[in-house]
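In the design runs reported in the main text, the only information available to the sequence generator was the tokenized backbone. The following block is the verbatim input for one such run; it is reproduced so that readers can re-run the procedure and compare outputs position by position.
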């Protein structure tokens, strides 16, 4: 029996057929294709690192932004048309805050609502706010309290102090 050789007569017997697995330069990790692969890897790493930095900055900015916390210490029904609310606020010293207060009657209908702008520069502010009501209020509640949009260190034109009545 005679041995049958596949491929050209001068090719080594254990080499793959030409063109079957791509060009030899790519298989040997040399040449222009290998350089292009390395360049793409570098670009991907740089873009990934940039995306991670942007994501970290956004997360930190969201968490460490201007924080304002407030609570109602007490409230007192002054009359059928008013409820006095003692509000305690914690914030950064230069932050202007806007707090919304409300009063409800015995049937849980809202009978009064007031937005209060707190412009004092202290970190802790205690203030009394009078909420006018359309009927006898039974509660004095804090709806929300947040840093004012475009917070400046000084009071806005026409804004009064924290003890708005």
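Verbatim output:
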């Amino acid at each position: 029996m005679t041995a049958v050789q596949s491929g050209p007569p001068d090719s080594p017997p254990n080499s793959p057929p030409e063109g079957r697995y791509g060009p030899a330069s790519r298989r040997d990790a040399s040449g222009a294709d290998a350089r292009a692969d390395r360049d793409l890897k570098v670009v991907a790493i740089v873009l990934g690192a940039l995306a991670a930095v942007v994501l970290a900055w956004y997360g930190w900015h969201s968490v460490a932004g201007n924080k304002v916390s407030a609570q109602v210490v007490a409230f007192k029904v002054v009359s059928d048309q008013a409820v006095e609310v003692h509000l305690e606020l914690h914030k950064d010293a230069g932050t202007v805050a806007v707090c919304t207060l409300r009063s409800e009657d015995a049937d849980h209908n809202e009978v009064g609502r007031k937005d209060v702008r707190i412009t004092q520069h202290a970190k802790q502010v205690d203030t009394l706010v009078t909420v006018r009501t359309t009927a006898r209020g039974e509660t004095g509640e804090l709806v929300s309290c947040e840093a004012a949009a475009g917070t400046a260190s000084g009071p806005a034109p026409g804004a009064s102090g924290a003890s708005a009545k």
